[in-house]
Write a structure and sequence with these properties.
259 residues; mainly alpha; single chain; two-stranded antiparallel sheet
Length: 259
């Protein structure tokens, strides 16, 4: 007698946790790297040393002009948030970007499309949103909308890449949930926005830009279908029908098969 799999409300979450390392190994490694980096910054360095490290990888205008590659890539090794102060707005941001964005939808993207495409989506969103936001900042400075000290502002973290996969992850939802989810992805950065002239603060601009990039990627044909090995397997009756069709086709005359 075959043993039945355990049932209950926690059965599906348990299966998801057990299969996570197999389904999304690169995402899991990235999450571990982010947690290690966060622990190093918070517990391994003094406040002054941590400020120096984060200031160096910050993607502000001065750093992008001085050491663009280091700041662009180094910024993606840390997340700007908290794991302990659960009553703060920063914890909500951590849940959305690290929890939903990276642990959730980046893992889904890796399983659906493979590692290369998942990395391309996340890193592409991070880089493109950062550079486009820098262009907006440069224009806003010339117009006097942003203060001059924004050139040295602290701006690091995973949130632009996470926002891109959050938007693209609309594809993972049933049709009835896609519009509310899209509204949430666009709305949550505006919750704490500070308006300076006609523009919100530059981090809000970056999050909205990343979301637009993610929604635009939905139209890419290669991202609207899973990789071949993720196609749903045929059921037993379907396979039997296919086998019968194959046998009958092979018995037909060659002229009929070409026709």
């Amino acid at each position: 007698m075959n043993s039945q799999s355990p049932r209950g409300p926690l059965a599906a979450p348990r299966r998801a946790v057990r299969s996570y390392p197999r389904r999304a190994p690169l995402t899991l490694a990235y999450v571990c790297l982010l947690l290690a980096g966060h622990a190093w910054i918070v517990y391994g360095l003094s406040a002054e040393q941590a400020a120096d490290v984060l200031g160096y990888v910050s993607t502000n205008l001065d750093n992008l002009q001085d050491h663009p590659l280091t700041s662009l890539l180094g910024s993606a090794l840390f997340f700007d948030g908290t794991l302990t102060d659960v009553a703060s707005p920063d914890f909500i941001g951590t849940l959305i970007t690290l929890g939903l964005g990276v642990c959730g939808f980046l893992a889904w993207a890796e399983y659906r499309w493979g590692r290369v495409r998942a990395v391309a989506v996340f890193l592409g969103g991070h880089l493109a949103a950062t550079l486009l936001t820098a262009a907006v900042i440069a224009v806003a400075l010339r117009q006097g909308w942003y203060p001059d000290d924004v050139r040295q502002s602290l701006d690091f973290g995973i949130s632009y890449g996470a926002q891109t996969v959050l938007a693209l992850g609309t594809l993972a939802l049933p049709r009835w949930g896609r519009l509310p989810w899209a509204a949430f992805v666009l709305a949550w950065p505006l919750g704490g926005a500070e308006w300076q002239g006609p523009l919100p603060d530059f981090t809000t601009v970056g999050h909205l830009t990343a979301a637009v990039l993610g929604f635009a990627l939905i139209a890419v044909p290669a991202l609207r279908r899973p990789r071949p090995d993720q196609a749903e397997p045929a059921s037993a009756p379907d396979r039997a029908t296919a086998d019968r069709s194959g046998r009958s086709a092979s018995a037909e005359p060659a002229a009929d098969r070409r026709g």
